[in-house]
Design goal:
Oligomer: single chain
Number of strands: 0
Helix content: over 70%
Largest sheet: none
Number of domains: 2
Structural class: mainly alpha
Strand content: under 5%
Radius of gyration: 16 Å
Length: 125
């Protein structure tokens, strides 16, 4: 059960990141593909699978974020990534704002990857 949930989660992570980058490229190139119905629906489906698999993993591996600072820091960075992603596509009204938010989102992803691989908190309390 663990391996299935983990592989589903990792697949959803990769798909989510690829879709985010692809949509950003289309945004910057002002592609009409960005306005296709499937482009608006598929990322939400992938992100729902991502969230559901993360919750499943929390039940399979009883990690308490309060006992593992790297885990709650990951959750905070995921929220920041989601927020910057929403900002890129819905609120950033200039290319510079879009690029800054995109770079912040990618930095969040890098920090998340570091936390997941090292299992070491970025900030120790």
């Amino acid at each position: 059960m663990y391996m299935m949930a983990k592989h589903l989660h990792l697949t959803a992570v990769v798909l989510s990141i690829l879709l985010f980058v692809l949509r950003f490229v289309w945004l910057q190139s002002q592609s009409s593909l960005l306005h296709k119905k499937w482009v608006k629906i598929v990322p939400h489906i992938v992100d729902t699978i991502l969230l559901a698999s993360a919750i499943a993993l929390c039940f399979i591996i009883p990690f308490n974020p309060l006992q593992h600072p790297w885990l709650w820091q990951k959750i905070i960075l995921v929220i920041a990534y989601i927020g910057t992603g929403v900002y890129v596509f819905k609120f950033a009204n200039t290319r510079i704002k879009q690029w800054i938010a995109f770079i912040v989102a990618i930095l969040c992803l890098g920090l998340i990857a570091h936390l997941v691989m090292s299992k070491q908190a970025l900030i120790a309390f």
